[in-house]
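Marked as duplicate of an earlier ticket. Keeping the data here for the record.
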Amino acid sequence: MAKTPSSGSARRFRGFEPASGLLRDRIRAAGEKRGFAVTRLLTGWAEIVGEDLARMTRPVKMSYPRDNFGATLTLLVRSAHAPMVEMEKPRLIEKVNACYGYAAISRITLTQTAPTGFSDGHADFMTPPKPPAPPDPAIEAEARRSAGGVADEGLRLALENLTRNYLTRTASSKKGR
């Protein structure tokens, strides 16, 4: 006869555990901080509103009135796409309410931003990042020279990186004066 686990014992995983289970609590805490009771709105935004609107918008905040019905959803949108998103507000409200299963939101407000990000320091989410500028050859040579006598490979690379960062900051601060 096979043993059945007692109802009070927690199930133990053997092997790999799904990543969604490992991050579930952190995602929920971050979502609740911004007013999102259901994190599916944040994690599945493209599935809920469609790829075309997901590329132009990003949910930022959900604010509830005192009676907890008819919340306001704040979306981040680039100013060039704001008129198009403004026309799609009724459709967005329907789709988001379908995700919640009831009339959770009654209004959508748009926060227009520059293409470089938002107040939290997020990277641009609508265009690919620019490649880094090529390093200055004089700074690279100085970084290699300063860590040249170190035999340990890891330590030598760390010292080169430290020297490179210091010299780059020094050079950029002198340009700003």
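See parent ticket for discussion. Residues 117-124 have pLDDT under 50 and may be disordered.
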